[in-house]
Design a protein that fits this description.
13 strands
């Protein structure tokens, strides 16, 4: 068995909590440590790695370039650890059925928890195993039978055995650093962003998502000055908070924005992002049918609220 430095893993987890919270004091309350204790853990991590990880200012903390690079590895590990935890729970669970749902991050913020709650109430023996995926990986995961249901931003599937259905539409919001002049406004015109530096998602993460946002910008004659690309929307938002530029993000991320950024409505932005469900028709089952029926009801209820 390989040696595992559990202290390093915990300190990296604490670092991620600090980045997410935007300050050491807020993070200390969340993780249940005193401020001096958390500060000492971060200091030890910096000493162990031999690099500075945080810029400390009166307004809070921001990640250094090395920290941003490290955060990508921490997020990858966190996802793997989450999947491991879920597998352990599935093995030890008394639920008779577990439907594997591959879901993009934004769907786990609200839609998946509501789906799980409704399923538990209506079908106590039917559980979910949620697996984090990128939209671009959904088709392969379905074909290879690694998941039973995919939820994400899709265009057209090449395999005719895959069926999909739109769930809900989203408007993008403009995410800016907390100290940016736009942060004081409730709404901006997309034309006002023409001279701004931009952080964007890598096209390979979700071609549909990127193409829809690019088409929106082209319609309004905006050619973004791209200074950074990110592997996920979460990293994109983190880079915005670090002062690397502005970005467009799905409105579902409003619930989890760190204090280092602000979200501003875009005057011209309509519902240009569609969240959809996809599944293999040849692998239909009673549990999949019940899950889809419940998913339709949850989405219809969310639409009626909006």
């Amino acid at each position: 068995m390989p040696d595992i430095d559990f202290r390093l893993l915990r300190q990296c987890h604490l670092l991620a909590e600090v980045i997410d919270a935007g300050s050491l004091s807020r993070a200390s309350r969340k993780v249940g440590l005193t401020l001096p204790a958390l500060t000492e853990q971060i200091r030890q991590l910096e000493a162990e790695l031999g690099v500075a990880l945080l810029y400390r200012t009166p307004r809070g903390t921001t990640p250094t370039e090395k920290c941003i690079e490290l955060m990508r590895e921490i997020l990858d590990f966190t996802r793997a650890a989450g999947e491991f935890t879920e597998r352990v729970r599935v093995i030890c669970s008394s639920a008779s059925e577990r439907l594997r749902v591959g879901a993009v991050y934004e769907s786990t913020l609200s839609l998946i928890p509501q789906l799980r709650a409704e399923l538990t109430a209506a079908h106590p023996g039917l559980g979910l195993r949620v697996i984090d995926i990128d939209s671009s990986d959904a088709e392969e995961a379905l074909i290879e039978n690694r998941i039973d249901l995919a939820i994400g931003h899709f265009e057209k599937f090449t395999d005719e055995r895959i069926r999909s259905r739109a769930l809900m539409d989203e408007c993008p919001v403009l995410v800016v650093p907390a100290g940016h002049p736009f942060a004081r406004l409730e709404e901006v015109s997309i034309a006002d962003t023409a001279a701004e530096p931009w952080v964007v998602i890598d096209r390979t993460t979700s071609r549909y998502y990127c193409r829809r946002l690019e088409a929106f910008l082209r319609r309004h004659a905006i050619r973004p000055n791209i200074t950074q690309t990110a592997e996920s929307i979460s990293i994109e938002i983190g880079l915005v908070g670090a002062g690397e530029g502005i970005a467009l993000a799905p409105e579902s991320f409003l619930a989890v924005l760190p204090p280092t950024v602000r979200a501003v409505r875009v005057k011209e932005a309509g519902a240009i992002l569609t969240l959809s469900a996809a599944w293999m028709t040849e692998r239909s089952s009673e549990s999949l049918g019940r899950t889809l029926d419940t998913l339709w009801r949850v989405c219809d209820a969310k639409k009626s609220v909006h």
